[in-house]
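[job 0412] stage=fold_complex status=start
inputs:
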Amino acid sequence: MVNIANWLHRRASICGDRPALFLGREMVADYAGFHARGASVAGWLVANGIAPGDRIALAMRNCPDYLCALYGIWYAGAAAVPMNAKLHAREMAWIADDSGARVVFATPDLAPALQQQGCDGEVIVLPGDGEDHVVFAAAPLPGPRDKSPGDLAWLFYTSGTTGTPKGVMITHRMLSAMALSYFADVDVVHAEDCAHYAAPMSHGAGLYNLMHVLVGAHHVCPPSGGFDPGEILDLAAHFGSVHMFAAPTMVQRLTRHAKAYDEPGLGLRSIVYGGGPMYHADIVEAVDHFGPVFIQIYGQGECPMCITALPRAMVADRTHDDWQARLASVGRAQSVVQVAIGDGAGGVAASGTAGEIMVRGDAVMPGYWRNEEASTRALVNGWLMTGDVGVMDAQGFVTLRDRSKDMIIAGGTNIYPREVEEALMTHEAVQEAAVVGAPDPEWGEIVVAFVVCAPGHDMDEMAFDAHCLDRIARFKRPKRYVHRHELPKNNYGKVLKTELRRTL
Ligand code: AMP
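[job 0412] stage=fold_complex status=done
writing structure:
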């Protein structure tokens, strides 16, 4: 049994009457219904000529039928191509065509633009919220088709902060490894728990459905279809034991909202954060307010959610001597992978030395979709080269410095923007900071900080400079400040430093 969709099939046969899918507080399907909808999607796909291994794209906002479509695709033995709902129709059409998707399931809000744009596959509009539809009325496939562990399950297009997105091939084996590692290193999940989908289901939040299907937990899609702090707190209080994946900016906004409305966060059991740097001040404030509910993971599409983890006790336990250093790290290698720091010459660096983070194991991709050249660059001697620079200490804790391409070299010295950003972020007038290098005839590069001010505050470059001088080496402090009302971000909320550099 290797088709991961068997996990749903099995759950439905063991406890078909357990509540499964919710839109807000309203249940739209139990596990038997969830399975039946998935099996009908599969029946419809097979009746329409879809063969094992074919790609089916998803242009869907977060909704319960996202999961029915996903499992239907897997039941049929096909591979899903989930696309971020915030992409432009042109970008979605590009991804759909690059993947060779024969069908694109789209929610009504996204379908018209995609149909107008045009793509090679047939666009099928699905209601999204458990309503009747011809696809869900098709004769069901009795169960998931057999798959091999190395077969493609999910084609994940990288967020493309640099250049054209690449399709990461995520296999059935990688997803079962991810699920195993989650239970071992990240969190336990019980049948009474809820997965709340506030972050895009096309990314980590969607991948995390698997652990909740495995134990027959509830899946709650917020009616807003996305991130709304008030809605999260309301649904958490209603359901009582909510798990969610959140990007660092979501954690910051959730904390600020909860503090402003004096909401303690009842029912929030686990918030797994990752996907980008979490600033020290933000996670300390979040734990102060919500308590020990946070767990950090570090991953990338090429090794989804599965490189390292920092468990909740280490995030929250301030009595430990190494608490600060551990909190600044991304934790230790997850159980199903090995992590090492490259020495730049094909070997492994000594502990404490900075270098490119490398990872290998069952959660690592076999390569990029139809892109031999990029695959060869990323997979070297059996290691995935992550493109992230970091150090590992003697206990195996990994601290990220930056993406290798974001590192600034000023006067021959390496400066990691993250460190400068951390320092700036502790100033009360700074809401967000992004530090990049600008070309300079004398130094090679100089440090430039783009700053978004906190409400009620103005730029005060002298004060920022004094603040940095108190915290980091002189040569690291910004030589120039640029005020911004907001920072350019991609659809996953990551700051587009390439765009900022272009303005200098
Ligand atoms: P993506 O493939 O779009 O998920 O982006 C993955 C990249 O996000 C990684 O290579 C890291 O640069 C960054 N990232 C992921 N998790 C973390 C984390 N916990 N802390 C800092 N950066 C992270």
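[job 0412] summary: Residues 407-502 form a domain with the GMP Synthetase; Chain A, domain 3 fold (CATH 3.30.300.30).
[job 0412] exit 0
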